[in-house]
Amino acid sequence: MTSERSVPPTISEVAAAAGVGRSTAARTLGGYGYVGQELRERVLEAADRLGYRANALARSMSTGVSQTLGVIVADIANPFFGGVVRGISDAAKARGVETLVLSTYEDLAEEIAATNVLIDKRVDGIVVASAALDAASAGHIQEARDRGIPVVLVDRAVTGLHLDAVVIDNRDAARGAVTRLLDAGHRRVGFVWGPPVEERPRRRRELIDLAARNLWTDGERLQGYLDALDDAGMAFDADLVMVGAKTEEHAQVEVERMLDLESPPTALFCTENDAVTGALRALRARGVRVGADISLIGFDDSSWAAVMEPPLTMIEQPTLALGTRAAEVLFAAIDGESGAAELHTLKTRYIERSSVAPPPAG
Amino acid sequence: MTSERSVPPTISEVAAAAGVGRSTAARTLGGYGYVGQELRERVLEAADRLGYRANALARSMSTGVSQTLGVIVADIANPFFGGVVRGISDAAKARGVETLVLSTYEDLAEEIAATNVLIDKRVDGIVVASAALDAASAGHIQEARDRGIPVVLVDRAVTGLHLDAVVIDNRDAARGAVTRLLDAGHRRVGFVWGPPVEERPRRRRELIDLAARNLWTDGERLQGYLDALDDAGMAFDADLVMVGAKTEEHAQVEVERMLDLESPPTALFCTENDAVTGALRALRARGVRVGADISLIGFDDSSWAAVMEPPLTMIEQPTLALGTRAAEVLFAAIDGESGAAELHTLKTRYIERSSVAPPPAG
Asked: Which DSSP category does A160 fall into?
């Protein structure tokens, strides 16, 4: 064993012999930080002269490198993830840990590359809002764990992956919101933000599968919408569900299509901010008044929703809490205190404003 | 010189002797990535046996680590920075470079810690929206450059620091927007988002200094507001400038204060999204109608502004372009192709909607 050999020279001795500072020697021999070529060679020469060997070097490698967490999110430009990252980094800073964030823009290949970078950069743990839909496509997450890097999922669970995941009550939140619309007397409720498929599936099972296969949260929210219809003993109508590109522009197109139906919706449930603004564009274009001619409940509250005319009733996600909880679960794993993998579900808040009213008479 | 010694064994030879894969040997000897304790010791033992020395080790350190950029922004949760980061990472991906993002929440101490982490993690370059106001408080940026890591500033210039900076035309944009309000006949234009000071300075020079000392862009935008007043030969009134906490809540308080003035503003220029929503809260609370009783122009267009009633006239910042340009300038520096430090100024876009009207008669 390496421990049986005589004690090798210290970094300070190498530094002195090289005529450089200890930190320069530590960086050169530890393999972190930047050291200019000439200084590097002087240090390596001295290390060589003094017989400074790899094992001592290995020990030095663990010194001086600051503790870091890696966070992989779908889109940093989405205020939802901005809040989650803020929550994670606040919790990390409280432990003196820095947070490195990478954005994948929902591209699994980018997520794999980001994971490899974080492994390369020797982060102490990873929080990821994964685009992987099952264990089969989550090999990169398994690899990080195989290398001893704890991983916690946030915002989305990954089916078949036995990992802690911190999510919100998507299905219950959607079920509750749609139930409020039905309780207000609405019988035709549009669901804005469906699966990105060309052709509209007629069967609900197929619709849910397509949504869930695109994004876990989409499937959960659509399921909640269907739960509410079931609770009220109401039939499902595929024409009231948006399908196609998940963009503000297409949400407008789909809501205008719904307004043209023989029996158009009297209420809309929008499960993303872009779904809300897209729907509002459609309603404005058709002169349909929110909170009067049509009711609307949206997902992801923002300061804008409160100053709309009328102020919009929204579902608020606890973005900061999602982040801080994910960080806590990760730190428990880093400290070796974590138990069996759990699904940590945080509650959303229903913020009642003025965009829900009874359906117009007649 | 090291080159005069006999050629040391290769990593592959060490790997073979240790009975591990080449990548495991490379990670152990290169000091990057994670290697389990037992494998690590086997590799180090073999390296030792074969006389694998630090100089060979040093060469191996430069291999296998993916290229990365570091980006330090004020607040990742701010969609403006989300767009900038998206622009940077798109440009980086095009070169096969990954982007690591850190958020400082406008805390200079956090910015220094973030810079040190990026130096530790051996990024190839850094883009920073710095909270430093002058060269004296930018020692950390100088340190990164001293270590051979190119740095490019984005969103804010740092006085006295000879560095490339990619910014928008803050002063011209503000001057142009306020001029449009004056051209529409307004004589009392409120400026929403001032310096975070308790007491309201009466002298304009002091006001600008305080704003600029808090944030470079704030000073530029306030200066543009004053330029427009000067162009129109109009007197400056300190009561029409918000001071105090830079929050949506306080913006509401300050706008309500302006509405209570003996001669209240007939138009508002809001230089941040939170200033816009705060002002709208105040106007709603007082029953003042935007685009009729009062005109409003805001900074940072968002999809929400377009669906407001009435749709808001806004100044759009080229967030993606700010990011891509910053990345291009940084890559030029990394490739050693950069010349003298420049201030790269990108143009904003004035998006005319329906929130500007002539002042109400009488």
From this structure: T
- Start-to-end CA span in chain B (Å): 87
Of B35, B66, B248, the CB nearest to A120: B66
H/E run at residue B269:
strand B267-270
Return the beta strands (E) in A17-123 as ranges: 68-73, 98-103
Rounded to the nearest angstrom, the minimum Cα separation between B264 and chain A is 22
Query: How close A206 comes to chain B (CA, Å)?
Result: 32
Instruction: Choose the mutation target among B7, B98, B277 for the interface with A, i.e. most A CBs under 10 Å.
Output: B98
Q: Nearest CA to CA, how far is B282 from chain A (Å)?
A: 10
- What Rg value do the Cα atoms of chain A yield, rounded? 27
| pTM score | 0.82
The identity of residue B291, as a single letter, is: G
Measured CA to CA, the distance from residue A314 to residue A303 in angstroms comes to: 11
Sort out which chain A residues have CB atoms less than 8 A from B1's CB and list them: 41, 45
Which tokens belong to B103?
A: 């958020």
CA atoms of B135 and B149, how far apart (whole Å): 17
- Chain B hits for A148, CB-CB cut-off 8 Å, are 34, 36
Distance from CA of A279 to the nearest CA of B (A): 10
Q: What beta strand segments (E) does B131-214 contain?
A: 151-154, 165-168, 189-192
Higher pLDDT, B265 or A336: B265
Mean local confidence (pLDDT), B196-225? 94
Task: Choose the closest CB to B31 out of A30, A47, A55.
Answer: A30
pLDDT higher than 70, residue B291: yes
Beta-carbon contacts of B279 under 8 Å, excluding residues fewer than 6 positions away, are B192, B251, B252, B255, B268, B270, B296
The residue type at B199? E
Residues 6+ apart with CB under 8 A from A284: B307
Q: What is d(CA A235, CA A238) in angstroms, rounded to the nearest whole number?
A: 10
Q: Within A108-260, where are the H helices?
A: 108-120, 139-146, 170-183, 204-214, 216-231, 248-259
Partners of A306 on chain B (C-beta within 8 Å) are 277, 281
Residue in A12, A7, A95, A3 with CA at minimum distance from that of residue A46: A12
pLDDT in tens, A235-284: 999 999 999 999 999 999 999 999 999 999 999 999 999 999 999 999 99
Q: Please indicate whether, in this complex, the C-beta atoms of B281 and A307 are within 8 angstroms of each other.
A: yes
Contact yes or no for B269/B189 (Cβ under 8 A)? yes
Answer whether residue B12 shows pLDDT above 80.
no
B66, A117: Cβ pair inside 8 Å? Answer: yes
To the nearest whole Å, the CA of B148 is away from the closest chain A CA by 7
C-beta atoms of B100 and A121 within 8 A: yes
Q: What is the pLDDT of residues A170-186, one digit of tens each?
A: 999 999 999 999 999 99
N-to-C CA span, chain A: 87
Q: Tell me how far apart the alpha carbons of residues A156 and A177 are, in angstroms, rounded to a whole number.
A: 20
**Residue A60, pLDDT score:** 31
Q: What is the pLDDT of residue A307?
A: 95
Chain B residues touching residue A86 (CB < 8 angstroms): 75-77, 103, 105
